[in-house]
Amino acid sequence: MVMVNVWAIGRDGRVWKNPNCFEPERFLESQIGFKGRDFELLPFGAGRRICPGLPLADRMVPLILGALLHRFDWEIEDGMKAEALNMEEKFGLTLQKALPLRAVPVSVS
Ligand code: HEM
Fold this sequence. Notes:
- This protein is an alpha+beta fold.
- It contains two helices and four strands.
- The longest helix is centred in the middle third of the chain and has 18 residues, at 54-71.
- The radius of gyration is 17 Å and the shape is globular.
């Protein structure tokens, strides 16, 4: 069994500029796709065991995220500022936030 460290690939400075910064706009002009053919980016895995839910997720994630962002403003609980957010990680087979993010939707009506 081969365990691929996708976390390390995603933070490799030889592949990504500012690898530790959240810059989703880096993908706007990029030719790198997420469907398992470009090994720099493998959110769904690759090859014969690639995630079979990819086509569903490809459609549903933008739809749901877009609807939530369009319909609500978002705050962090207890009036916390984004800069104060705890970004520590909890090590495991998959990496998680040490403290889960609790985002509060506020209706924009
Ligand atoms: C953003 C959403 C999702 C992400 C990032 C994701 C990611 C992954 C990854 C990384 C794997 C392991 C692939 C590998 O071993 O190379 C996987 C496997 C799998 N995913 Fe997903 N997945 C998502 C959504 C879904 C959905 C919506 C379904 C079902 C409706 C699904 C069903 C599965 C199943 C059954 C496997 C196991 C496939 C196997 O081992 O042969 N996933 N997924």
